[in-house]
Amino acid sequence: MKFLQPEWHDKVSSTNTVLMDWLKDGVTIPMGFVLAAVEQTAGHGRYNRHWVSQSGLDLTFSFLLYTKHTIEGIASLPMAVALGTAVALDTFGIITKTKWPNDLLVRKGKIGGILCEKSNFLYKEEYAVVVGLGINVNMQEENASTIGKPATSLRIETGRMYPIKDVLDIILEILPHWIDRWEQGGFPSIRDDWIARCCHMGEHITVGEGKNLKSGILEGFGDKGQLLLRGDDGYVRDVWTGDVE
Ligand code: BTN
């Protein structure tokens, strides 16, 4: 895939919402279209959690992807995007880890997140998926500490400030390789790289959503990117959604 020149907007509700609305309204959006916002007024993540970003200081953007994968296959797309973005962020001299299914961490702090939303729009039998990324670029410690969960930024990690457009360019340069690999071979084609980067492999974790939490050892990842959890009874179970704690 190739990304088009990003289209920058000063202020939008959410770059994901704008692209999803355009698709619903029948607007034809080309593959690789990138919408970036200087400011989002209603940025959100998984489970509709508020996404904190500072106007002009942090990176918020979404792009459009058409994929031949089924709904089940698309479950691992955030993992491919997280992996590619982690590789891109490492070029700033930090060590970026991934956390299943869509988080980017540096040390124990979240530096970025990915939100993939599949639309019902089919073009030549390919689903249109909106992929949104939020990266904490120039967020300062005092803002990061208001998020409620450990958070960090490129600035906190390196002591330097970065133009958000430069960070976007680097991500857009590196991501196609990972998305192409995923498109061709699905999660199995990126599994080894994912495992080498992801947190908590072999550790005792709690995973799930709401009250539906399960504990066990993080044993690995299945062919669709589902988490494999070995319970106390010794059985390995597939986990498809939720957060790892
Ligand atoms: C998460 O960690 O749950 C995912 C966060 C995704 C945030 C990005 S910012 C750009 C795009 N627009 C949104 O409203 N969300 C995504």
Tell me what you see in this structure.
This protein is α+β, with helices and mostly antiparallel strands and 245 residues long. The protein has two domains: 7-197, BirA Bifunctional Protein, domain 2 (2-Layer Sandwich); 204-244, SH3 type barrels, CATH 2.30.30. It is 27% helix and 33% strand. A hairpin with a 2-residue loop joins strand 6 (109-123) and strand 7 (126-135). The model has no long low-confidence stretch (mean pLDDT 95). It binds biotin. Biotin is lined by residues 14-16, 40, 43-46, 49, 51, 60-62, 102, 113-115, 132-134.
Concise structural overview:
By secondary structure, the chain is of the alpha+beta class. It has 2 domains: 7-197, BirA Bifunctional Protein, domain 2, CATH 3.30.930; 204-244, SH3 type barrels, CATH 2.30.30.
The CATH architecture term of the largest domain is: 2-Layer Sandwich
Average pLDDT figure: 95
Estimate percent helicity.
25-40%
Any idea what the radius of gyration is?
A: 17 Å
- Give the strand tally: 12
The shape is globular
CATH superfamily of the largest domain: Bira Bifunctional Protein, Domain 2
Q: Beta-sheet strand percentage?
A: 25-35%
Low-confidence stretches: none
Q: And the CATH topology of the largest domain?
A: BirA Bifunctional Protein, domain 2
In DSSP terms (H or I, runs of 4 or more residues), the helix count works out at: 7
Ligands in the model, by name, code or SMILES, are: biotin
Strand order of the largest sheet: 1-2-3-7-6-5-4
Termini separation (Å)? 34 Å
Structural class: alpha+beta
Tally of individual domains: 2
Q: According to CATH, what is the class of the largest domain?
A: Alpha Beta
Element order, helices and strands?
Answer: EHEEHHEEEEHHHHEEEEE
* Major sheet details: 7 strands, mixed
